[in-house]
């Protein structure tokens, strides 16, 4: 009898150790095949797969071969946008609440919010952080708009043609419906995070990612939304974590969510995917795009408008381009140093979903959370002014 009990116990242990992980693994594989076909089932299966087997996050793309600059480490310096070699520092690194009425905001589960804790040793000094104020470029790729801001044209469009349409009014109707949000703020890479405070060095063990929303890019989105609301602009903030557990599927995930929200709220005219950049030299030095506004440190931004990537098309990309130019010029008129040159390039980033779809990079992994939050508030103010100016207020 004792032998039978021992055998039964051994079998149970074996099933737990081998059978259960295999079952969960199969769930994960099924989820990968499901993709966006079944949103709920796919997310449940992906979550089980990751939590059990510890699937890793895709590493943040790193930059290399930045032009040499004579800058004192940790201090704010100047960088002029000219030709680089293998690194194009202006491109994205390998890349995806309303006023007077509450709209339900898509929220991540508590389980997801605790999945990647913010662990950043502020006493560590493993690499240098340098703050730079990125300035305008002066080669043939850069177009200077009438208001003084710049576009970096990485497409086959003629510069003179783009300049001729840059000031045209977009066909986006920015009049708001009383019962629907006008603006959607979301984050394809919601785990992108920042330094806890302004400092001259960083902890190399820190992944620069966290699901804790008070320390990642969602916090910037909160500031944009807060400022829009204060200015009477109705806004919806999608805070779902699209890049966890699968970083590679992030744009598929955010596309499905944004498509569903646009169907639910057809009054949404502006869709802004808020990210942060990742800028690091081959030496390990991290660069923080930086400027001072009203005596406070702010993170510079870069607006990206896409012309399609060859396989995926953005049919009305010139409408997005005109809207991007209008926002760039609006910001330039109030805060000339806040924007890096706008990037117009052959990319996709789900910008086919609306005529007001843009991606905005706010700072980099080396900026402090206070700097990027301040920038979020400034961007919210400028979007509000653009909308009100378009409406003739």
Mean pLDDT: 79
- What is the CATH first-level class name of the largest domain? Alpha Beta
| β-strand number | 13
Number of separate helices: 8
Q: How many structurally independent domains? A: 2
Question: What is the level-2 CATH architecture name of the largest domain?
Answer: 3-Layer(aba) Sandwich
What composes the largest sheet? 8 strands, mixed
Structural class: alpha/beta
Order of strands, widest sheet: 3-4-12-11-13-8-5-7
Description:
The structure is a single chain. The strands form 2 sheets. Strands 3-4-12-11-13-8-5-7 form an 8-stranded mixed β-sheet, with helices on one face. Strands 1, 2, 6, 9 and 10 form a 5-stranded mixed β-sheet that branches. Residues 1-9 and 12-101 have low confidence and may be disordered. It folds into 2 domains: 2-53; 76-390, Zn-dependent exopeptidases (Aminopeptidase, 3-Layer(aba) Sandwich). It is of the alpha/beta class and 393 residues long. A hairpin with a 5-residue loop joins strand 3 and strand 4. 44% of the residues are buried. The longest helix has 33 residues, at 2-34. Helices cover 33% and strands 18% of the residues. It is built from 8 helices and 13 strands. The chain has helices at residues 2-34, 39-53, 110-113, 159-166, 217-230, 250-264, 317-334, 369-390; strands spanning 76-81, 127-137, 142-144, 150-153, 183-186, 201-202, 235-237, 270-277, 286-293, 296-299, 301-306, 342-345, 357-364. Helix 5 (217-230) runs parallel beside helix 8 (369-390) and helix 7 crosses helix 8.
